[in-house]
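Local shape tokens:
==================
===
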Amino acid sequence: MEQRLSRQAASEAVGDDGWRLVLGALCSSVPVGSLAEGVEVASRAVAACGDHADGHLRIDVRPGQVVLTVQSRALGAVTDLDAELARTITAAGLKTEPGLDPAAPRTVQLLEIAVDALDIPAVRPFWQAVLAYADEPGAAADGPLVDPLGQGPAIWFQQMDQPRPQRNRLHFDISVPHDEAPHRIEAAVAAGGRILSDARAPSFWVLADPEGNEACVTTWQGRDK
């Protein structure tokens, strides 16, 4: 029987093996020199996971890198089995890394889009239909929507207490490795942005571009009860 891991436990279980907990999943990447090499890396990762691959492993193969994501599809969470699978993939000889090297294009990350709504039950079905999305496994009835193919960003809904026509009603949540967040925020500020709030750090920081459009840089930290 799989056991869900707390965020702290999941991060600690695989951090030394080049994996990072990002938005409820274990993520890593393997640098490759060609698409053919990437396919070989993907095959080795699948073989390492064995019969569990279909239920836990997602792979994005590109000419320069292979991005690996491990999460229980049935639970929508990281379990003790997921941590074991991640370690097994690394032990198979793959150079798993989170992309923290400054020379890397960027770290592993996952994107969420937040929709501010006064009436979430009224708004949510529209987004589910227009995007052909599905309920997130294990989430509440008004919880996030996810791409069933795992290609697009998750959509979640933030409860508004009153109309706010003067501000944007959408914002991006960029979930990054916890040790990447300070660098990402520094880069955003250097590029003309500003920090609107760090009251909930290190769970998330609210940033804005020069015209006030908002984005949150988020991590797993500070979220376990």
Notes: The longest helix spans residues 35-49. The longest strand covers residues 110-117. The chain has a mean pLDDT of 92. The chain has six helices and twelve strands.
